[in-house]
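Q: Structure tokens for this one, please.
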Amino acid sequence: MTDQPIIAIRDLHKSYGPAKVLRGCSLSIARGEVVVVCGPSGSGKSTLIKCINGLEGYQSGSILVDGIEVGAKGSDLPKLRARIGMVFQHFELYPHMSVLNNIALAQVHVLKRTRAVAHERARELLTRVGLQDKADTIPADLSGGQQQRVAIARALALDPQAILFDEPTSALDPEMIHEVLQVMTELASSGMTMVVVTHEMGFARSVADRIVFMDAGEIVEDSPSEEFFSVPKTPRATEFLSKILAH
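A: Here is the predicted structure, written as tokens:
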């Protein structure tokens, strides 16, 4: 790990009209770190990671990703998104394209790889996520868990410095959650920098280096994983944990 964080957020403020969604959030993420962002619905978790990837603008503060200021005029957002992959709650695959072409498309357009090289890389990644036999399938013929694993392969195809996950299992049936978390766990153990918005506290406890707890647009706690689960610092985090773990 180098000393410079891969992601550095400073005093970030974001509003939709009068509604303040992020209130002075600051966060640094080192290379190779796995950070889980959790908190109640509406606490600003998904907005925070969409700001990191340039999918949402913000009114004030700064986000540096690998030294690039996300909100600066003239920042090359497509290039930035190649460095910082994103896996969405609802997969966001192209429905009319085969799995192979879903994974190859951005490689050809963003990285300027030849179609043959992009397809070869796509097949390698399908093997990595356990879907080597699904290359010619369209997304509609896959289960939700398989679609999400394709989405992870697509994010990996651009050789990103980090990957953001926005509630990657919340749209899945319970039996499919495990197969996606297994791929994410293997990814974490390979050294990939990951920021994961999730309610899967078992995954968070076993895989995350740090837990960031948000409430009402603020980062309330930022603690090593074991510390967060054993001695949360605030009543709000204690209450949240007791409800989640009881459930």
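A few notes: Residues 7-246 form a domain with the Rossmann fold fold (CATH 3.40.50.300). The first strand starts at residue 7 and ends at 16.
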